[in-house]
Design a protein that fits this description.
alpha/beta; 15% strand; isoprene biosynthesis; Rna Polymerase Sigma Factor, Chain: A; binds magnesium ion; manganese ion binding; 1-deoxy-D-xylulose 5-phosphate reductoisomerase; 11 strands; 48% helix; 18 helices; Rossmann fold; DXPR_C_sf; 3 domains; binds nicotinamide-adenine-dinucleotide
């Protein structure tokens, strides 16, 4: 029986995780759940999954949750804030932690799980972009197993030889030449370029293949998501930027590929449903059912591929530049992007200005020294957010 903490339980990944967990009550029990704003939904999940702890951001949310849990006769202990998240991520009775908080806000608890040597199911790519080296070193020192949930990275992981799954340093010895990340191209892949300045948050969040949270949906529309994934792949698999390529594949059926020295290319395919990578990471190295239906290739008929359009997707270039520059650049780019996306979702910034905010902040702060600990990464993240906040009103005009 595995004991699991689900951070970000009310989100898209959190909900899919609990769907898979509920299919296997003989294998998994829920130790702790967390949520940010949706306290009512968290209370319902507590009623259903009976965790020992539930974590919310502050005392007001804590008081509300305690009331709801008491009315429901649920005995979960309520914790608050980042300290509460880190506590349930590192607790000695926890085996696996699903890190599914969105944004750099998820860094501290993910890092706590890594340090404590947990099986870390990593959906929160921003944690790795903000503090890649720090996170990887902490996982190694703590003896943690990091299993990627992001569908592309999970696909790459599945296509690697076992020695390279166990140790990112072993990709060369395993004959890996390059990683090919697939990208859907998002909702605006074929939209006329001159219309992009006017697109709305609703249009940006209407992804053709995946149902996801709003922030990652906007990132998919700008392809910043693939940029973040490029950086994520670098830290997870230890390959340099020039050995990670991106190919647009609008059907999202091939989730990514690994190319070997002999010319073989291994791919992982499946219906676009996050329960597949979640079930894979939960049960690895075993396999369990996920609730995802069989892939019907004849019904699909064809799979298409094209290169990403650099004019349409400037964020992809920024992410490559940030990864090449290293140092503070990935952390700074991620922070700027979180601010720009939030402003776009609140209709304070046009879609096309997201890339402009990102570029200005990256230019201004990307050359800083790499942070060497959590406090340094959080301070840099904070500074980049402040600069982005100052630039947003000007770029909105
Ligand atoms: P979501 O917006 O649906 O859910 C986010 C979760 O995080 C919620 O439970 C929310 O309560 C919590 N949260 C938000 N802000 C918080 C804060 N400041 N502090 C603590 N908790 C907070 O997002 P999602 O789509 O589930 O994505 C979660 C993560 O997984 C992201 O990093 C995303 O990039 C990654 N991911 C998602 C998908 C997907 O299909 N949804 C695919 C790959 C990777
Ligand atoms: Mg992905």
């Amino acid at each position: 029986m595995q004991s699991i903490t689900v951070l970000g339980a009310t989100g898209s990944i959190g909900t899919s995780t609990l769907d898979v967990v509920a299919r296997h009550p003989d294998r998994y029990r829920v130790f702790a759940l967390s949520a940010h704003r949706r306290v009512e939904q968290l209370a319902q999940l507590c009623g259903r999954f009976r965790p020992e702890y539930a974590v919310v951001p502050d005392p007001a949310a804590g008081a509300r949750l305690r009331e709801l849990l008491a009315a429901d006769g649920c005995g979960a202990e309520v914790l608050e804030g980042t300290a509460g998240l880190a506590w349930v991520a590192a607790h000695e009775r926890v085996d696996a932690v699903m890190a599914a908080i969105v944004g750099a806000a998820g860094l501290e608890p993910a890092l706590a799980a890594a340090r404590a040597g947990k099986r870390v199911l990593l959906a929160n790519k921003e944690a790795l972009v903000t503090a890649g080296r720090i996170f990887v070193d902490a996982a190694r020192a703590g003896g943690a197993t990091v299993l990627p949930i992001d569908s592309e990275h999970n696909a790459v992981f599945q296509c690697l030889p076992p020695a390279a799954q166990a140790d990112a340093g072993a990709l060369d010895a395993g004959g890996v030449r390059r990683i090919l990340l697939t990208a859907s191209g998002g909702p605006f892949r074929t939209r006329a370029l001159h219309e992009l300045a006017q697109v709305t948050p609703e249009q940006a969040c209407a992804h053709p293949n995946w149902s996801m949270g709003r922030k990652i949906s906007v990132d998919s529309a700008t392809m910043m998501n693939k940029g973040l994934e490029l950086i994520e792949a670098h830290y997870l698999f230890g390959l340099p930027e020039e050995r990670i390529d991106i190919v647009v594949h609008p059907q999202s059926v091939i989730h990514s590929m690994v190319e070997y020295l002999d010319g073989s290319v291994l791919a992982q395919l499946g219906n676009p449903d996050m329960r597949t990578p979640i079930a894979h990471a939960l049960a690895y190295p075993e396999r369990i059912s996920s609730g995802v239906g069989a892939l019907d290739l004849p019904a699909l008929g064809r799979l298409d591929f094209e290169p990403p359009d650099p004019l349409r997707f400037p964020c992809l270039r920024l992410a490559r530049e940030a990864l090449r520059a290293g140092a503070a650049a990935p952390c700074v780019l991620n922070a700027a992007n979180e601010m720009a996306v939030a402003a776009f979702l609140e209709r304070r910034l046009p879609f096309t200005a997201i890339a402009e905010v990102n570029e200005r902040v990256l230019d201004a702060l990307g050359g800083r020294r790499a942070p060497d600990d959590l406090a340094g990464a959080l301070a840099l993240d904070e500074e980049a957010r402040a600069l982005a906040a100052a630039r947003i009103p000007r770029l909105a005009a």
